[in-house]
């Protein structure tokens, strides 16, 4: 959270909100493409099962990042 406070001080609330919303849009694109990105790994039988775990990890990580950004945006909009 400290990094966001520093960011807000340097650029202002409106710009911070814009950057976080842009970040969420970019993260959503990455989230949508995770499965496509891992297609090549799925064809390797040595990685059977591991790729599913990796995809779930990326999926959870990106969703958590988006949720955190969204929560911060909501807080900033109330200021």
SSE sequence, one letter per element: HHHH
Number of domains: 1
Helix count? 4
Task: Give the overall average pLDDT.
Answer: 90
Strand content: under 5%
Low-confidence stretches: none
Summarize the structure.
This protein is 86% helix and 0% strand.
Describe the protein's architecture and organization:
The chain has one domain. The protein is 86% helix and 0% strand. The protein is elongated, with a radius of gyration of 16 Å. The chain is built from 4 helices and no strands. The chain is mainly alpha-helical. It has helices at 2-11, 13-37, 39-42, 50-78. The longest helix has 29 residues, at 50-78. The two termini are 16 Å apart.
What's the arrangement of secondary structure elements?
Blueprint lengths: L1 H10 L1 H25 L1 H4 L7 H29 L1
Descriptors:
single chain; elongated; 79 residues; mainly alpha
